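--- STAGE predict ---
source: upstream dedup step, 1 unique chain passed
mode: sequence only
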Amino acid sequence: MIRNTPDSNQIARDYLDSILIEQRLIGSQTPSTQFELFGRRFSTPVMMPAFSHLKPYAPGRESGLIEYSRGAKDANAVNFVGMIENDGFLQIVKANPNTIRIVKPYADREKIFSQLTFAEQEGALAVGMDIDHFFNKTNGQWDLCVGELLQPQSEEMLKENISSVKIPFVVKGVLSVKDAAVCAEAGADAVIVSHHHGRLNYAVPPLMVLPDICRELKGTGIRIFADCSIDTGYDAFKAIALGAEAVCVGRALLPDLKKDGAVGTKRCLDRMTGELAAAMAFTGAKCLSQITADVLWSSITGKRIVPSDTDSR
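--- STAGE serialize ---
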């Protein structure tokens, strides 16, 4: 009998759905979703994903990467972009200066440094690296992505990447306390807790390991974000309650993006931000820093989810 391998995205989705929210209305006020990152202020902690290789969705339209970058600017949200050559990145950062470039862990080290420094020179908000895509899912060998060989990063290599630029550095794909500690030692400014849309089968849900990572990084000043299966503002609320400062929306964005480009992107971000604000209003949180884990319950255990020292802010 051949067993179907459980999908890591479904595992993450099921975990998110198992978390319930306690209502607290007396004394509640209209909340603010204002968010600060690297010296700039944004209207929402719901950020873009680090997508790569999106083509135009219809004749006469710009690439999906440029469209969603424009939509993020219109929504005053942080923009991310993934694997792209320098000329393509230049178009992205012109469309939205508040863009963070996430570079792949190329085996070609010079290409890494070239892309990081180019982004810095062109005024990117920050740069970073995706550390969870270098092994092939089927055989554990180094992966070949769009003709580019990828390579695992050692702590020393990560330090070199970070020290090659003077702007903030984000490490994407942290899913353990061990890797979080290495990122802190290497000098990272932020981490994204993520399993990269399930590159590892049976991956622990990001929100399940998030509180442990927050405890590990408490006091370091490292910003902590969450990714994977963040489909609604209520998901964002749960992630922030468990210690993240912001979240990245991924494939939930695609239907609006495909249909209406930048307008659809802004509509999706506005909808999720509205849902987040509603969850805040119903729990008495006037601002993001007042969202705490003591309003979360587990539908599995029937008990509160209150990890000790979760609030790293």
